[in-house]
């Protein structure tokens, strides 16, 4: 599939990437593509409750300067059909169906939060599919306190509602001056796309995803020794949703991985420090 615009020049701005669809196993997946046409693509795996419009354009655009980038809506989310799967394993199977429907047999992965959980399950089942891996704001299956994400999420949604704020400002960023400023800047960046915006996730789908994460946190650990590809792990040092210590746990369990922990930041550390992280991620994922 071409990632060029009407002028024949590759689209490198996420705000301008057209929404497309492909059908696999009875599910129609919505996705967007940008960047150069050639080479192994980088598939982005998104977070809890997120749609195509929840990716920080600063990160996507940085990678798309040199790489073909694909983002997608999971089954039952946004413009994708079907119902949200009840487990992370099923979400990984859906991701595999989507990837193979595009005719791909090798990809790189950029993942955040729940997307990183799905990516891990995908690689455990299909270890030769992914060449390079980026895991941010995430943790391993059975990771301590991942199952507490339900309480943290509902509490922060309440706090956001009372202050008429976007819940991501509370869930992703600390409530100090720098964190509040970074949170508002992040939310504004998500509004840069003005046409063909995605549909918000339904409340039912959101609750199903939360329960899937809770089950993942209460499951037996996976054998991550099969993750032998170059891996970059990043997080903030005060992640309340997926405890930061779990990023260190991943680093210990994935041989040869790199770990970056950003100071005075939370779950959205890569968004708060996007000016530092974007070039690091782009270099790591360079052709």
TrEMBL record:
Molecular functions per Gene Ontology: hydrolase activity
A Pfam family reported for this protein in Swiss-Prot or TrEMBL: Abhydrolase_1
Highest taxon listed in the record's lineage: Bacteria
InterPro entries recorded: AB_hydrolase (IPR050471), AB_hydrolase_1 (IPR000073), AB_hydrolase_fold (IPR029058)
Keywords (A to Z) from UniProt: Hydrolase
Residues of the AB hydrolase-1 domain: 42-271
Transmembrane segments: none
Protein name: Alpha/beta hydrolase
């Amino acid at each position: 599939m071409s990632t060029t615009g009407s002028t024949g020049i590759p689209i490198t701005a996420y705000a301008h990437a057209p929404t497309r669809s492909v059908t696999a196993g009875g599910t129609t997946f919505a996705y967007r593509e940008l960047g150069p046409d050639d080479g192994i693509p980088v598939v982005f795996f998104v977070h809890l409750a997120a749609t195509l419009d929840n990716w920080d354009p600063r990160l996507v655009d940085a990678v798309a300067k040199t790489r073909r980038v694909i983002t997608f809506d999971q089954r039952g989310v946004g413009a994708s059909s079907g119902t949200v799967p009840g487990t992370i394993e099923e979400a990984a199977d859906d991701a595999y169906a989507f990837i193979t429907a595009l005719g791909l047999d090798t990809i790189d992965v950029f993942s955040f939060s729940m997307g990183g959980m799905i990516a891990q399950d995908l690689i455990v089942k299909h270890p030769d599919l992914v060449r390079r891996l980026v895991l941010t704001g995430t943790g391993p299956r059975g990771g301590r306190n991942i199952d507490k994400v339900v309480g943290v999420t509902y509490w922060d949604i309440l706090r956001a509602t009372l202050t008429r704020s976007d819940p991501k400002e509370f869930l992703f960023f600390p409530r100090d001056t720098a964190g509040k400023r970074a949170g508002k800047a992040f939310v504004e960046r998500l509004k840069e796309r003005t046409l063909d915006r995605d549909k918000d996730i339904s409340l039912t789908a959101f609750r199903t995803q939360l329960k899937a994460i809770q089950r993942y946190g209460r499951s037996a650990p996976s054998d991550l020794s099969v993750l032998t590809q170059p891996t970059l792990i990043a997080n903030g040092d005060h992640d309340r949703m997926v405890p930061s210590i779990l990023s260190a746990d991943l680093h210990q369990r994935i041989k040869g991985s790199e770990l970056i922990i950003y100071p005075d930041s939370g779950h959205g550390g890569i968004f708060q420090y996007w000016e530092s992280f974007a070039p690091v991620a782009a270099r790591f994922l360079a052709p």
